[in-house]
Amino acid sequence: MTADEPPHLATALRGRDYLISAWPWRALAYAVTSVPLAGLLAVALLIVGTPLVAVVEAARQDRPIGLPIILCLAVTGIALVLLAPIVISPVAAVERWRLDLVDPRPLPEPPPRDGLAARYTSAASWREVAYACWLGGVVPLAYGVFALLVLLDLVLLAAPWLAEEEGQVALGWTTVDTPGQALPYTIVGILLVPVLGYVAGLLVAGQAAVARWLLGGPADGPALREVTRSRARLVNAYEAERRRIERDVHDGAQPRLTSLTLQLGLARLDVPDDSPAARPLAIAHEQAKDLMVTLRQIVQGIRPQNLTELGLAGAVRELAGEATIPVTVHADLTRPLPELVETTAYFVVSEALGNVARHARATRAEVRLTQPGRHLVVEVSDDGRGGADPARGTGLTGLADRVAAVDGRLLLASPAGGPTLVRVELPCPR
């Protein structure tokens, strides 16, 4: 889960306290409200599919297909194509609203579809139709299988009482005649109750994932690709401009400022201490030296000099040596890294270690740099108090934006009481 991502059912299922949290009840509410919608859509699909089944059955038995069936199939198919994008739109709106029960992460707004023609040419409309077909075709089957499992578990739980009343109870694969014989099956039924709770959660989480994929997916592929390309162009332009500024400052302004500082220092040697110009000259000399330090920091903020001289692993070890707590660095970098990826990774470590020093109350930290596949993975962990929250201004939001600018992603695990782990994955194209 990323630093600013709210919890949802799929993540809650991995928690130990899932069954005693509010998530099973939210999943139940989502499932119960799914039944009428899925039922109506299933009936509609049956009406549409019945002529098609008749045609397939006739073809399988080498029987002639009657004209009424062909006409019915043609009319049904044309009506489905013409009406589906319009009729399904309200269903999709309800599903987007209902999804908040189990997945409060915001969905991208559907693109505007003004006019009748836009309903048939928009990819979002046909994704909604695909979701409706899935909701009416697959979901009822899945819910039916789960209902049979629940019914079987209820029979297992009630088996002793049924055996006492009826004398013989069929449990599918066997029969029992007395409550004593039924008792082991009842114990199995009790053990299955929490299992069914997790199965129901997985079923609803899967349904919600499909809803998010189809209803919240990219509505316009070419536009999305163009946005991706434009972001890449902006990042490349920024990197080129960064290098130009660094070169101009290093080769132009910095030498001139160094010369000015030197000239002011020589002038102080020639001016007597009791001269009226001595004090202003000393102040100007000190200000020039302070400006040198500031300019050096600005240049280093563009691309740190130690990163250029030592590489990423060496620069990170230097950061660790300057930290206020012991920091262990493990670096396994087997291939050269792009300059932009190196710079991003360096500032990730710098900001993360700064957060540890300012907020974590940790006694030690660890930095790992690895290159699995075509990615650079940066992990910064500490044994502090945890509870890192981007909303409290700890720099995580800006860090996530910096990582996203190079198509990377940031993941945060920081439970209350610690420990905290910041993991950043940066793509490294070969």
From TrEMBL:
Keyword annotations: ATP-binding, Kinase, Membrane, Nucleotide-binding, Phosphoprotein, Transferase, Transmembrane, Transmembrane helix, Two-component regulatory system
UniProt keyword Hydrolase, yes or no: no
GO cellular component: membrane
EC number from the UniProt entry: 2.7.13.3
InterPro entries named among the record's database cross-references: HATPase_C_sf, HATPase_dom, Put_sensor_dom, Sensor_HK_TwoCompSys, Sig_transdc_His_kin_sub3_dim/P
One GO MF term attached to the UniProt entry: protein dimerization activity
Top enzyme class: transferase
Pfam families named in the record: HATPase_c, HisKA_3, Sensor
Reaction(s) the record says it catalyses: ATP + protein L-histidine = ADP + protein N-phospho-L-histidine
SUPFAM superfamilies xrefs: ATPase domain of HSP90 chaperone/DNA topoisomerase II/histidine kinase
Signal peptide from the UniProt entry: none
Residue span(s) of domain Histidine kinase/HSP90-like ATPase: 343-428
Listed PANTHER family: NITRATE/NITRITE SENSOR PROTEIN NARX-RELATED, NITRATE_NITRITE SENSOR PROTEIN NARQ
Name used for this protein in its record: histidine kinase
Annotated organism of origin: Micromonospora eburnea
The organism's taxonomic lineage, starting at the top: Bacteria, Bacillati, Actinomycetota, Actinomycetes, Micromonosporales
